[in-house]
Design a protein that fits this description.
This protein is an alpha/beta fold. The protein has helices at 7-28, 41-48, 52-60, 79-91, 118-130, 145-150, 184-190, 202-215, 236-249, 275-298, and strands at residues 39-40, 68-69, 75-77, 111-115, 135-139, 158-162, 174-179, 193-198, 223-228, 253-257. It has a 7-stranded parallel sheet, sandwiched between helices. α9 (236-249) links the parallel β9 and β10.
């Protein structure tokens, strides 16, 4: 039997050894580059807030990025095409920010930390990029869950970075932190908004209670919000617990409730979502729209 020794120094050395080995492993096995899918002209028109016929007119006149032609003559756009269209349309827009809603000189970059909801972080990051924001998604988790889910590059306007310190480019509009519970102290020292996600189960709400006690002595200033995830509206017990959360915390609970989201891909990767996937996508889109309204309000813009 080994001689007992102080746990602290031993655990610290083991942590350093494991962290170094994990870093070597990630360097030797980088996430596979996964190109984003093509978007139909109807999807692009909805994202840009224009008519499909207008996109067809631009294409026929040779203006802007030219789409690919798919089966049946369908026009298909890459995320880079969508970004280029936004820049072109913004140049002629009567109202600044119509097609590129991001920061202007003097606007601070919001830093939103989502705790315990890696798939949610991934979906919000992709939706905000598709909506014209330049997004930095920061993976706080040593296991690299967000990096594995999104890959190094997925959409134009979205960049994924690992590590606890954001290295934001000047053009970054929004920073999203994917934060496991143990990294809450780091996240709260950086974030302007902290979102704690919880499933409406007794076990998850007990974990939320633990996280809140861990934050009780925090000196940082940030908006504190709660997000109900993994919610099955047909489950009466879940609905009751979600209602309790809203009764306790009021407007601090985001109005959207999300179902379970996939952990190996995002719904934006699916060209033709099934009914359940489409409903989940609607919920994610509503959440992203809510967060974007809060960002615009912080910038002093109409919401």
């Amino acid at each position: 039997m080994q001689i007992s020794q102080q746990i602290g120094p031993l655990a610290g050395r083991h942590a350093d050894l494991l962290a170094a080995r994990l870093q070597q492993h990630r360097a030797a096995h980088p996430p596979a580059h996964r190109a984003s899918r093509r978007f139909t002209s109807g999807e692009v028109a909805a994202l840009l807030g224009v008519r499909d016929a207008y996109l067809r007119k631009l294409s026929l006149e040779g203006r802007g990025p030219q789409p690919e032609t798919g089966q049946g003559g369908r026009r298909l756009y890459t995320s880079e095409n969508i970004r280029a269209l936004r820049h072109m349309l913004e140049a002629g827009a009567k109202t600044p920010g119509t097609y590129l809603p991001g920061r202007r000189p003097g606007d601070p970059a919001p830093i939103i930390a989502l705790c315990g909801a890696t798939p949610v972080t991934a979906h919000v990051a992709q939706k905000c990029a598709l909506d014209g924001f330049t997004v930095l998604a920061l993976d706080f988790d040593p296991a690299g869950g967000l990096t594995a889910l999104l890959g190094p590059e997925t959409l134009a306007g979205l960049r994924v970075q690992t590590g606890p310190t954001p290295h934001a480019e000047p053009e970054t509009d929004l920073i999203l932190l994917d934060c496991p519970a143990h990294a809450l102290p780091q996240a709260i020292s950086t974030a302007t908004t902290l979102i704690l996600a919880a499933r409406p189960t007794a076990q998850d709400l007990a974990a939320l209670d633990h996280n809140l006690h861990a934050l009780a002595d925090a000196q940082a200033t940030a908006d504190l919000l709660y997000l109900v995830t993994g919610h099955d509206p047909a489950d009466a017990a879940q609905t009751q617990l979600a209602g309790i959360l809203r009764a306790l915390f009021g407007d601090h609970v985001l109005p959207q409730t999300l179902p379970d989201l996939p952990s190996d891909h995002t719904l934006y990767d699916i060209a033709r979502p099934r009914a359940a996937e489409a409903r989940a996508l609607d919920a994610v889109n509503a959440l992203a729209a809510d967060l974007q309204r809060r960002i615009r309000r912080a910038w002093g813009r109409p919401t």
